[in-house]
Amino acid sequence: MLDIQNHTKFEFDDETLQKIAQKYSSKDVELLLIKDGDMRELNKNSRGIDKSTDVLSFPLEHMEHTPLGSIVINIDKINEASCKFFHTKDEELTLLFIHGLLHLLGYDHETDSGEMREKEEEIIQEFNLPKSLIVRVEG
């Protein structure tokens, strides 16, 4: 089950997010949507990095009957990226959710050999998301 806590006025369709969460984990996943200033503070407090970011994942210890973890997404970054990459806000939200979920599942693009990116591409294709999300490159 996907438990969504929206701390913004951002409106979106959660149907695809629910389907992705159900397909890739039998555990509960928490999704929090917050604004840029709150994300900066969270990133500073949790990672010691005093700047904002688009998505953070907080996996919980894998024990029976515990949720998989939490994904926190910055709505202001979704608005910026949707304009920059010519995607809808829902598509950007979905891409960031996939990225965060894969981190909860143990993937790490900072240490792997491209496995996380390959899995992102697989999910993008599986859920018929725009192929342009695959080639997205941030400068």
Written overview of the protein:
Helix content is 43%, strand content 16%. With 139 residues, it is α/β, with parallel strands linked by helices. Strands 1-2-4-3 form a four-stranded mixed β-sheet, with helices on both faces. α1 (15-24) links the parallel β1 (2-6) and β2 (29-34). The longest helix has 16 residues, at 89-104.
How is this structure best summarized?
The chain has 139 residues and is α/β, with parallel strands linked by helices.
Mean pLDDT: 91
Taking strands numbered 1, 2, ... along the chain, how are they ordered across the largest sheet? 1-2-4-3
How would you spell out the order of helices and strands? EHEHEEHHH
Main sheet record:
4 strands, mixed
Principal-axes geometry comes out as globular
CATH class: Alpha Beta
CATH H level: which superfamily?
Answer: Metalloproteases ("zincins"), catalytic domain
CATH topology: Collagenase (Catalytic Domain)
Which range does the strand content fall in?
15-25%
Structural class: alpha/beta
Domain tally: 1
Q: Do you know the CATH architecture? A: 3-Layer(aba) Sandwich
Oligomerization category of the chains in this entry: single chain
